[in-house]
Request: fold
Amino acid sequence: MAASLRLGRQGIFFGLKLSNIHKSLRSTQSLQEKARHFFHSPWVFGVAPLNVQMPALSPTMEEGNIVKWLKKEGEAVAAGDALCEIETDKAVVTMESNDDGILAKIVIEEGSRNVRLGTLIAVMVEEGQDWRQVEIPSPSAPPPATHETIATGVPPHASSPAPAPKTVPIGSLRLSPAARHILDTHGVDPKLATPTGPRGLITKEDALNVLKLTPKPKTTPIIAPPSPGPAPVTAAIPPPPGSRPNIPPLSVPGNPGTPGTFTEHPASNVRRVIAQRLTQSKTTIPHAYASVDCDMAAVMKLRKDLANDQIKVSVNDFIIKAAAVTLKELPDVNVTWSDDGPRALDSIHISIAVATDKGLITPIIRDAANKGVHEISTNAKALAQKARDGKLLPEEYQGGSFSISNLGMFGISGFSAVINPPQACILAVGTSRAELSLCEDNQTLRTQQLMTVTLSSDGRLVDDELASRFLERFRTNLEEPQRMTLA
Reply:
C-alpha cells in the first residue's frame, strides 16, 4: 500500500514536470516565431524588389535613351503594360512589363541618354507589398559628380580631400587623337590622366575627367601708378612652360561665337549606328556602280489612268514593283553576304530609304513581288509615316534583301548610294527629265521622260555582267508595266 502511494506521488510529480517542460517549449517556440516574423518583416529589411533593366530592343542596340515614362511611381502594372518609351539605335520602341506588380521607384529619369544595356532603370514590387519600403539596389557605377565636386574636386560633406590623380610613366603614354587634342588645347600634362582604354590608352573621357579636376588659372589685377593715363588693366598669369594656347578658342555660352569656335552636339543613337554601318559598308564592301536611263512614258500614262479611277500611286511604287519582279526573274541578285560566303534568299523584301529628323532608316515592304502596285503604295505610305514618328517595330526594318533610295523628289538627277550590309545591292533613283530623241523608224524627233538609276553592287556577289543584266531587265519591266503583272 505504502509502495503504491509512493509510486503514485512520483507519477504525479513527473507529470507536473513534463507539463512545465511542454509549456516552456511552447513559449520558446512562440518567441522564435515572433522573432523570425520580426526580422523577416519588410519593416526591418524592406521589400524585396523586382529589378527592371535596360533591355536589348534591337540586335545592334548597345545603349538607349529614356524618352518618356508611361507609368508613375506607386501605380499598378500588369504583365504586358507599357512601362516607358526607349529610343534605340533604330526607332522609339515601347518597353512592356514582364511581371505584375507596382512600380516602386524610377531610377533613370526620362530624358536620360546613353543608358547601357543591363542598367537598372526602375524597381517594382509584388502586389500587396508596401512599395514605399522597397530596397533600392546600389548602382554598379559611381554616382555622377555634383557641381561642387566638379568645381573643387572634393565631394560635398567630405572630411578628407580627394586623392590626387594617378600618374602614368612617360614611356607608356598612349593617347587617342581626341584626347591628345583636348589636352594640348588646354595645356594639361598627359601624365595626370588615368588611362581606362585598352592597353593603357588615354581616351577622350579620361582627358575630360582631367580637365574637371584641373583648377582654372586665376587672373590677378595689375595696379598701375596713379596717373591721368588709362584705366588699370587686368592681365592673366602666363601659362606654364611647354603649354599651348587654346586653339581653337573656347566658346562661352550666351556670347556670340568668335571665329574658329565650335559647338558640340551630342549624336543620337540612330546617328551613331548610321555612321558605324556606313563606315563598315565603305571599308569592307567592294562597291561597283552601273547606271542606265529608263523611259518613264508608259508609267506616267498608266499612273494618270489609275488616277482617273481614284487609284493614287506614285512613281516610286512602280519602281519598287519593277525591282521586286526583276529580283524574282534573276534570283542570283537576291543574295546577302555572310561570314561563310554568299547566302541565297527565298523571299524578296524591298527596303525603302526614308529620311527622318533623326537620320535615314529603311522600312521593309515584304513579299513585294507578290503584291500589286496599289498594295505596295499603301504599305509604303504607312511605313514611311511610322518611320518619321519613330514607331517602327523591329520586324518592320530588319531583314531586307534589296534597297531602293529615291532622291528624285528633291530634284537630284543621279547619284550613287551606299550598300546596306549584308545586302548585295542598292538602287539609287534620280528625277525624270524631258529629252528630245530621234525616232529611228520615221526619223522624227520625240520627247522622252528619262530617269537615271544607278545600281551599287557588292563585287563579291554581283559581278559587272550580272549587274548589267539586272539593269537591262529592270528597265524593260519599267518601260513595259504590263510585264510586271505577268511575272
Summary: The chain has eleven helices and 22 strands. The CA atoms of residues 274 and 294 lie 31 Å apart. The chain has a mean pLDDT of 78.
